[in-house]
């Protein structure tokens, strides 16, 4: 099996090619296990990457929350941990970072919620008690057994040698597995799909925290809690998931857009133009998405004054631009504050 992982040119085979080669030499039973191990490696590699990303945001979100998918297939011991909140540097995460078993669908999210107690009597499989970002290993030790031909040593080698290989594997999991997980999550009651990030602020389970604008959307969300009783960070939901979209985006005028934020039923979209001349266009794009524009000034190519912002707001809210921007207000996120401008 080891020889099959490397193509003739010395590069590592992507899963689609490796699967074909493995099929030639292994029966159906071993083939299924091989794919399971392959995907388990991806899940661990992604967990390590995510954990390192968490480490960069502990000033805002010092704690980490364990979350199960909350359906009938969740293992009892994983269900018992659902909602557990512990500090980022707590030893608990050295042994309880998902995946905690084959095909484990649990995840973790950063939060500023207060830590909770860990339920007693919960025993995980010892071979899965590992945090790859801390241990530097995909698997915790010799107790891990494989049945498809990939040894722990070989998997370690692959993980070290090719980050791009892990990225390709992760893409495979995203394309094949996330559709299933997304479908399960979108069938939950609407409020069960969100978790709290603090007073009046909630985040959907499917929000991609690796996006480069995530932290800024989060900060804007905190500002919006000053004017709304419930602010939600919204996920990207494919236009084909019509039932899920109807549940998550009620009364949204666009059937295809994914606004960043929802405040008590009012949709907002954060735009981050690089040039002052693109502010109007970005605001109009938000309107086309059925959302009030929130324009971040933190990426613009010139120093911004409130007078400049007022002039830009006047352009956006003018009668001349009315057919492109349908709302009576626009926001600017400037120097860490939300500034609202209303139509005169």
Structural commentary:
It is built from eleven helices and eleven strands. By secondary structure, the chain is of the alpha/beta class. The strands form two sheets. An eight-stranded mixed sheet has the order 4-5-6-7-8-9-10-11, sandwiched between helices. Strands 2-1-3 form a three-stranded antiparallel sheet, with no helix packed on it. α10 packs across α11 (306-316). The protein is elongated and about 65 Å long. The chain starts with 14 loop residues before the first helix and ends with a strand.
Topology:
Layout: H1 15-25, H2 28-55, E1 63-67, H3 76-79, E2 85-87, H4 92-95, E3 107-111, H5 132-135, H6 152-161, H7 163-186, E4 194-198, E5 201-204, H8 214-224, E6 231-233, H9 242-248, E7 261-263, E8 266-271, H10 279-288, E9 292-296, H11 306-316, E10 329-334, E11 337-342
Parallel strand pairs: 5-6, 8-9, 9-10
Antiparallel strand pairs: 1-2, 1-3, 4-5, 6-7, 7-8, 10-11
Helix pairs in contact: 1-2, 2-7, 10-11
């Amino acid at each position: 099996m080891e020889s099959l992982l490397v193509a003739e040119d010395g590069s590592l085979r992507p899963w689609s090619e490796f699967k074909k080669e493995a099929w030639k030499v292994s029966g159906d039973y071993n083939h299924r296990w091989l794919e399971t191990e392959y995907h388990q490696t991806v899940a661990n590699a992604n967990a390590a990457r995510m954990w390192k990303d968490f480490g960069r945001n502990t000033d805002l979100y010092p704690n980490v929350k364990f979350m199960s998918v909350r359906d009938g297939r969740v293992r009892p011991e994983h269900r018992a941990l659902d909602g557990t909140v512990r500090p980022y540097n707590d030893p608990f995460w050295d042994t309880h970072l998902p995946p905690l078993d084959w095909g484990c669908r649990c995840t973790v999210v950063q939060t500023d919620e207060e830590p909770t107690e860990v339920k007693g009597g919960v025993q995980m499989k010892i071979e899965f008690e590992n945090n790859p970002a801390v241990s530097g290993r995909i698997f915790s030790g010799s107790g891990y057994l494989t049945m498809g031909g990939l040894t722990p040593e070989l998997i370690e080698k692959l993980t070290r040698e090719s980050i791009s290989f892990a990225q390709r594997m992760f893409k495979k999991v995203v394309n094949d597995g996330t559709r299933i997980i997304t479908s399960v999550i979108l069938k939950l009651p609407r409020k069960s799909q969100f978790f709290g990030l603090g007073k009046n602020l909630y985040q959907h389970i499917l929000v991609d925290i690796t996006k480069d604008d995530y932290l800024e959307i989060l900060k804007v969300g905190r500002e919006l809690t000053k004017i709304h009783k419930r602010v939600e960070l919204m996920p990207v939901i494919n236009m084909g998931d019509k039932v899920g979209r109807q549940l998550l985006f009620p009364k949204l005028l666009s059937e295809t857009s994914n606004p960043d934020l929802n405040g008590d039923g009012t949709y907002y979209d954060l735009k981050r133009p690089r040039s002052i001349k693109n502010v109007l266009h970005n605001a109009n794009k938000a309107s086309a998405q059925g959302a009030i524009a929130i324009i971040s000034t933190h990426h613009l190519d010139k120093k911004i004054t409130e007078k400049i912002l007022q002039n830009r707001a006047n352009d956006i809210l003018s009668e001349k631009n009315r057919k492109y921007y349908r709302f009576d207000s626009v926001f600017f996120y400037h120097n860490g504050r939300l500034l609202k401008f209303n139509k005169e």
